[in-house]
User: Which sequence fits this backbone?
């Protein structure tokens, strides 16, 4: 028997410690069933947490494990506990594996009567397989007889039923997706014979049935999304090859249905491939037909006008319609579609291009704060900076969004109006006092040469407001450690800020730094937990360094002895102190 360099360490490295431990339990319980080997490939079934066993395969090579797969929800790539169980079975009991030849070779050696008998046995054991026998034979050249979509439809429904377990089950989507991918593989033989009509029927039917059910299935990891993506890609290939107008339109209808489904559920992204294919591959006449489909969906949106879902869906259909029709619309048609579907940015841009400034202003006034910022940039790009500033300034009277004032500040900076920029910077700071906005005020005031006066006013006002946390951060920024030490005690829940002050105080105020580090270490130890002990040990290292620098070794020995001898004794703490060299 061929030898492979497989070790427990290698298995553990591939699947991870947790999966290895659980896989070893599966191996010891005899969960691996009917293991066999085909050349370098190991195959088996493994009982798990579901009613049906999982199917596993692993490919071995000169350097060990090269590839693997499991039908369980986390088995992609072969890094699960079931794969670990298979590999441990091979490592410790290789004689339990039955050696078999590749499937193609085994079938080729049978005559027709044997093959028929074998198929009967398979169908008797797995009745669902009988559906495959009713697919039309693949012709040696050209197209086969038309496939009855019902044959594929029943397979898909059965796959969804098999993978169900209530549909809310975490692994249901992965199980269903695996079976659907297998059903789509039935199209391979037709593709190889350039039978694009039957190939498309298989892909279209799988996607159509999945569209009926996908919202009822919990697709946490996007397994069903991958089926939509792959099926759309395959249909794109069929569209490139299809000659008949009806076949092309049928394919496009399915792709558009995928796009619609994605829009209706809120834009998960599983239709991105279909979207690109439709825009690139559909001809002018087909796009005109697709426009009627999209318009019908748009007309069906009847939720209340202020509903966010309605707005988002209308905008999505609007983008699709604009992309489909491109430059074929007149200006008025373009503007009407933008108004109807809420394409505000495109609407304002077209109005500005047409120099219809008043209409553009009216449209921009309906925008949200976030949208207005993008629209303001459009006005600036079309030499309407004064209009843009007026729109944003008007909005600041009713909005608390600091980005609006920030936009005005940046415009003033760009134009070199430092006095105006300073007013905007201070307004933004007092809207939301932060260290970042403080730095903006400082940098702009430096251009005017009046920073000391402005800084004094800011610090006085913050002190009156008792904004001690921000004051402390400002003092640290300005390297005024003594002032930071004075405001820090007024800060509630100082935590990490206290440690920043302590670090800054090490050089000029070492005893204050020692006090802060000790205080933090004491709080962490009292909170318990190895992670807290490790962090506390780090701060105690700083205490030791500072006390030795001050020549107070005895003081350090007293501190660390008190920590070690505290009641109750904490073995995990002692271990972390030892790790830290304390």
Assistant:
């Amino acid at each position: 028997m061929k030898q492979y360099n497989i070790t427990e360490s290698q298995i553990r490295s591939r699947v991870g410690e947790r999966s290895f431990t659980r896989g070893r339990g599966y191996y010891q319980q005899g969960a691996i069933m009917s293991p066999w080997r085909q050349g370098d490939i190991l195959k088996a079934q493994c009982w798990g947490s579901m009613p049906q066993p999982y199917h596993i395969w692993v490919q071995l090579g000169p350097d060990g494990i090269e590839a693997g797969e499991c039908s369980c929800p986390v088995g992609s790539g072969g890094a699960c506990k079931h794969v670990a169980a298979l590999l441990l079975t091979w490592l410790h009991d290789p004689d339990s594996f039955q050696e078999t030849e590749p499937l193609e070779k085994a079938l080729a050696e049978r005559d027709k009567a044997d093959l028929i008998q074998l198929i009967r046995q398979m169908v008797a054991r797995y009745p669902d397989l009988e559906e495959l026998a009713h697919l039309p034979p693949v012709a040696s050249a050209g197209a086969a007889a038309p496939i009855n979509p019902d044959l594929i439809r029943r397979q898909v429904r059965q796959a969804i039923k098999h993978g169900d377990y209530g549909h809310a089950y975490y692994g249901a989507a992965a199980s269903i997706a695996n079976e659907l991918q297998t059903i789509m593989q039935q199209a391979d033989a037709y593709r190889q014979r350039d039978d694009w009509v039957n190939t498309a029927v298989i892909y279209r039917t799988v996607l159509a049935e999945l569209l009926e059910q996908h919202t009822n299935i919990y697709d946490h990891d996007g397994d069903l999304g991958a089926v939509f993506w792959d099926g759309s890609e395959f249909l794109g290939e069929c569209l490139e090859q299809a000659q008949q107008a009806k076949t092309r339109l049928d394919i496009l209808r399915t792709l558009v249905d995928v796009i619609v489904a994605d829009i209706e559920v809120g834009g998960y992204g599983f239709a991105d491939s279909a979207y690109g294919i439709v825009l690139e591959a559909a001809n002018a006449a087909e796009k005109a037909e697709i426009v009627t489909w999209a318009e019908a969906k748009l007309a069906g949106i009847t939720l209340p006008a202020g509903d966010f879902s309605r707005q988002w869906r209308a905008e999505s259909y609007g983008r699709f319609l604009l992309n489909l029709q491109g430059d074929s619309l007149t200006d008025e048609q373009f503007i009407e579609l933008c108004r109807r579907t809420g394409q505000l940015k495109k609407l304002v841009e077209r109005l500005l291009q047409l120099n219809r400034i008043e209409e553009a202003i009216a449209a921009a006034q309906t925008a949200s704060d976030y949208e207005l910022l993008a629209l303001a940039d459009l006005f600036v790009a079309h030499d309407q900076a004064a209009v843009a500033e007026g729109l944003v300034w008007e909005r600041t009277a009713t909005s608390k969004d600091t980005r609006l004032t920030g936009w005005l500040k940046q415009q003033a900076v760009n134009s070199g109006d430092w006095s105006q920029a300073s007013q905007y910077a201070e307004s933004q700071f007092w809207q939301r006092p932060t260290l970042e906005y403080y730095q903006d005020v400082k940098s702009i005031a430096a251009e005017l040469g009046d920073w000391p006066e402005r800084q004094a006013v800011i610090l006085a006002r913050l002190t009156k407001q008792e904004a001690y946390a921000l004051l402390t951060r400002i003092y640290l920024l300005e390297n005024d450690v003594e002032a930071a030490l004075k405001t820090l005690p007024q800060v509630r829940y100082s935590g990490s800020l206290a440690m920043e002050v302590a670090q800054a105080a090490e050089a000029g105020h070492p005893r204050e730094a020692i006090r802060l580090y000790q205080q933090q270490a004491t709080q962490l130890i009292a909170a318990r937990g190895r992670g807290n002990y490790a962090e506390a040990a780090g701060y105690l290292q700083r205490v030791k360094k500072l006390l030795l620098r001050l020549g107070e070794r005895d003081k350090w020995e007293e501190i660390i002895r008190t920590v070690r001898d505290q009641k109750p004794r904490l073995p995990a703490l002692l271990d972390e102190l030892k790790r830290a060299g304390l």
Notes: The beta strands are 32-38, 41-46, 54-61, 64-70, 98-99. The mean pLDDT is 89. The two ends are 56 Å apart (CA to CA). The CA atoms of residues 518 and 540 lie 7 Å apart.
